[in-house]
Amino acid sequence: MKNPNAREQILDRIKNSAHRQRNEQNGITGKAQKKPSPVFPVSDLTLTEQFQQELEKIQGTFHSVKNREELLNTLNKLHDNYRWPFVFCRDNELTEILKDAGLEVTSNMQRFPETEAALTGCEWLIAETGGVLVHSGSTSGRKLHFFPAVHMVVATPMQLVRTLEEALIRMEEQYGENLPSQITHIAGPSRTADIEKTLVMGAHGPKALHVLLTEYE
């Protein structure tokens, strides 16, 4: 005869094992790993230099923007390059920047299917991977990171960290038990080589990722 409590016992063992492992490893709430991870080569570059190098390796584009004027000029140059009809943005501060640049901006979801470009913030920039960490709890939500063909991200040097582990630790310190339901590590533009081993950009998301690192806040 089968043990009617077998399922509960198995689940309890799994739960206890996971709890022990978390305690042994100190979870992601332990000391932030600011040094390079064992799987990544040691770099003597600054965080900004390493992030730029790694971002460009995965076909993202890095823009160093020193002040507000350079930020407006960079956005206008991107518009001249892509000629999008408008930029979709849900962040109030970024919306004002787009307006000051003379660009049309909207947050009207009825126009979202027409969107070719979006401007968002981010949570962290990961120097080791050139990745951008975003989450569903931000003003941009989930769609803006995946749907538009051109994704532009504005961040400051204060959002640069060395490792993905450090970024996750900082997120847990900030949000505690209220972590966003979705945390995404964006590693450059969307791409796939599944079809006849031919690289296709924008297969599952943006064809272009631009990170504007600015000292202007």
UniProtKB/TrEMBL annotation:
<dbReference type="Pfam" id="PF02589">
    <property type="entry name" value="LUD_dom"/>
</dbReference>
<dbReference type="InterPro" id="IPR003741">
    <property type="entry name" value="LUD_dom"/>
</dbReference>
<feature type="domain" description="LUD">
    <location>
        <begin position="49"/>
        <end position="213"/>
    </location>
</feature>
<protein>
    <recommendedName>
        <fullName>LUD domain-containing protein</fullName>
    </recommendedName>
</protein>
<feature type="region of interest" description="Disordered">
    <location>
        <begin position="15"/>
        <end position="39"/>
    </location>
</feature>
<dbReference type="InterPro" id="IPR024185">
    <property type="entry name" value="FTHF_cligase-like_sf"/>
</dbReference>
<dbReference type="InterPro" id="IPR037171">
    <property type="entry name" value="NagB/RpiA_transferase-like"/>
</dbReference>
